[in-house]
Structures are given as structure tokens and as C-alpha cells.
Amino acid sequence: MQKELNILIVDDHPMTVNGYINVLSDEEFEGYNLNFTKALNCEEAYKLIINSATSGNPFDVAYLDLSLPPYPEKNISSGFDLGMLLRKTLPDCIIIILTMHSEAVLVDRLIKEINPKGILCKSDIDIDEFLNAFKIIFENDDTYLSNKIVKSLKDKVFETYNLDNYDKQILMRLSEGILTKNIPNYVPLSLSAIEKRKARMKNMLLQGKGGDDYELIEAIKKMGII
């Protein structure tokens, strides 16, 4: 017996919404029957979300465009506000953000306040990536960020910790298993300069707790630097 998977898609461009539906409908997801609900503005989406939360037939997945016609009566002005509403009313709903923007400040806020399972930059994805993102999120229960979103987060970390391109090269070589003493063969710095940079990064990224190269690499992987 197939399980119903209720998917809400919110975007103010009808052709875009229908395109998303067609892409997902063309694939078979074993054990699931996909049911789609469309909304073209914040008012429609708000009412659908509230109804879903009270009807006993909740949305399992929600795709939210960020730029939408607002719903002033309920103080809902964007897909971000809808994401916050979903988090309160349907906490188990998988939220996937669709946006034309990839600014680090926006991405950081989305992650901290909504914690979506996916953030896709519209200018960054095609049909194949859109479908692949859904499979990774839903079938593998993993998070998916498109390339521009990942780059934005990396740039933010580098800016926050004042890391430059040499620091990045050192971290990359360490992650590849190259010993510190051999890194001057790959990075145009002296061994002493590399050791000083590595010590500074450990102090910052490991919050002054010390640690070996493995702990440094694990820390930067969690931050998404590499």
C-alpha cells in the first residue's frame, strides 16, 4: 500500500510551479504517491498551511520561494515568514527554500531560524539538480545546498575568521593527508610560516582548546570550509 506524500509548492510564477510538479511527477518514488498543492502568494499559502495543520492531513514537504506577494493582514510578507509559520504549526514538515539570492547574511538567517533541509539558488540549478536535491533530502534524509549557497557559507566562514587563500590551501592539503612538513611543496610559503598559520587556525577554529591536525580538519568540515 502506497503512502500519501503531501507536497506544498509556493511560488508566484504559475509556470514555475507547474514545472516543479512535472519534474517530480515524472519520477517514481517507491511506496509513495505524491500529492501536490499549489500556492501563488503568501495569503494562499498561509491558509493552506493553517488548514493542513488542523485537518489531520499535514504537508510532508514544502517548497517555498522567498519573494512572494505579501499577506499584510497576518503580517506574512515572504517565504521566510511562511517558513517560520511552518516551523510552528507543522514542525515535522520538510522545508526546502527556493531563492534567487545567495547572500551569506540571508543564508545564515535561514539556517538559524528555519533550519530547512534544502536551500536552492534558482540561478544555480537545472531540472536534474532539482530532482537530485529532492532525492537526497527525502530518500537519504540529508541536507542539500546548491553550489552558490555552499560558496556563500564558505565565504562567510573565511570572512568571520579572517582566513585567506593561503590558509585555505593549507587546510586543503591537510585534509588530503599531506604532512605539514611537505606542504611547502604545494603552497609557496616557508614551513615556519605554515606552522604559524596552522597554529593560529587551531586557536580560532578549536576555540583555544588546542588539538591535532585531525581535530582541525573535522572542525573545518563541520563548518563547510572544505
Count of discrete alpha- or pi-helical segments spanning 4 or more residues: 9
The backbone outline, from C-alpha atoms, is elongated
- N- to C-terminal distance: 42 Å
> What's the alpha carbon Rg, rounded to whole Å?
21 Å
By oligomeric state, this entry counts as: single chain
Enumerate the strands of the largest sheet in spatial order, edge to edge or round the barrel. Answer: 2-1-3-4-5-6
Annotate the secondary structure layout:
Layout: E1 3-10, H1 14-25, E2 32-39, H2 42-55, E3 61-65, H3 79-89, E4 94-99, H4 104-113, E5 118-121, H5 127-139, E6 144-145, H6 147-160, H7 165-175, H8 191-205, H9 213-223
Parallel strand pairs: 1-2, 1-3, 3-4, 4-5, 5-6
Helix pairs in contact: 2-3, 4-6
Explain the overall architecture.
By secondary structure, the chain is of the alpha/beta class. 49% of the residues lie in helices and 15% in strands. It contains nine helices and six strands; from the N terminus they run βαβαβαβαβαβαααα. A six-stranded parallel sheet has the order 2-1-3-4-5-6, sandwiched between helices. Helix 4 (104-113) links the parallel strand 4 and strand 5 (118-121).
Descriptive tags:
alpha/beta, elongated
Concise summary:
By secondary structure, this protein is of the alpha/beta class. It has helices at residues 14-25, 42-55, 79-89, 104-113, 127-139, 147-160, 165-175, 191-205, 213-223; strands spanning 3-10, 32-39, 61-65, 94-99, 118-121, 144-145. Strand 5, helix 5 and strand 6 (144-145) form a beta-alpha-beta unit.
